[in-house]
Design brief:
Length: 299
């Protein structure tokens, strides 16, 4: 009877398992030369469990179990670890990234389950990180890129991520639109002290205070046009796409989702909005920091 080498991942919580699973899937894709990811991408439940365990040991997240003296030996993971991995894989099935290949599953029990990747899953894996399907990883990356992110923005982004992952696409769209609006309001607020004269500041406030966000942003764009010479080139290059275009996209989608228009949101479109949000918000915060460090003190 062969001996057993058992990996114990019980100290790793669900969020940690989820991150390891995504990394394992991506590594498998690269190792097998699936670029871009295509329909031949296939994983077996037992194989993915062992791959996650080996990756965790390689990353020194868990202790690497000793190799048994008696050969040959089999590799297993603890029961709780297998349950956690199974629940995360099932999340990906519910999110329409993986599906159970019934034709390949001729075994009893779930040890032999084979999972294939969906067309939507191919797009998700090919896009790389950060991915909304790993909520903790996405939010950690957001905070890493924008350490001083406003708590209101963070709350709405987190809400959008979690709604997206349970297919509440209208809610996810509304929440990310709210996060976008809050970011723009902070940008406009930070811009006022950057204006060089009291007259310009008063005039700008009169045109924006209490107005709809669309009108405020239009006034901001008009005013910013006369100040671009004072701003570092890398901050204003592509601003019409990185900020203006994305803001308008998120605003329109939010209005469609937040009003009884009957319009449905496609999962791919919500995914794209979440993918671009960090770049968008990071540029906003870079501008805010520049305005703060280069404002005029009017005596």
């Amino acid at each position: 009877m062969p001996s057993v080498r058992t990996y114990n991942l019980d100290t790793i919580d669900i969020s940690g398992i989820r991150a390891l699973l995504w990394e394992t899937l991506s590594l498998k894709w690269v190792r097998e030369g699936h670029y871009p990811v295509h329909s031949n991408y296939r994983v077996k439940y037992d194989d993915i469990c062992i791959s996650i365990a080996e990756l965790a040991a390689k990353r020194n997240i868990i202790q690497n179990p000793p190799i048994p003296q008696i050969q040959p030996f089999t590799r297993e993971i603890s029961t709780l670890s297998k349950q956690r991995i199974g629940s995360v894989i099932w999340e990906l099935v519910c999110q329409q990234i993986l599906y159970i290949d019934l034709a390949q599953n001729n075994y009893s029990g779930n040890q032999g389950f084979t999972f294939d990747i969906t067309e939507y899953g191919q797009k998700v894996l090919a896009n790389g990180n950060p991915i909304p399907h790993d909520p903790e990883g996405y939010l950690d990356y957001l905070q890493h890129e924008i350490p001083d992110i406003d708590s209101v923005i963070y709350t709405y982004v987190a809400e959008s991520i979690h709604a997206y992952n349970i297919n509440l696409l209208l809610s996810a769209t509304t929440a990310i639109g709210c996060a976008s609006e809050k970011a723009l309001l902070l940008l406009i607020e930070a811009y006022i002290p950057f204006l060089p004269t009291e007259k310009e500041r008063v005039g700008f406030v009169q045109k924006t205070k209490g107005k709809f966000i669309k009108n405020q942003f239009e006034e901001f764009q008009k005013s910013l046009g006369g100040q671009k010479g004072r701003i570092h080139k890398e901050l204003v290059d592509g601003i019409d796409i990185v900020i203006s275009g994305i803001f308008e996209l998120l605003r329109q989608n939010r209005n469609s989702a937040g009003h009884p228009t009957g319009k449905e949101m496609k999962k791919e479109n919500v995914y794209a909005s979440l993918q671009i949000f960090i770049t968008y918000c990071k540029r906003i915060y870079s501008l805010m920091e520049f305005f703060k460090n280069n404002h005029f003190t009017i005596k």
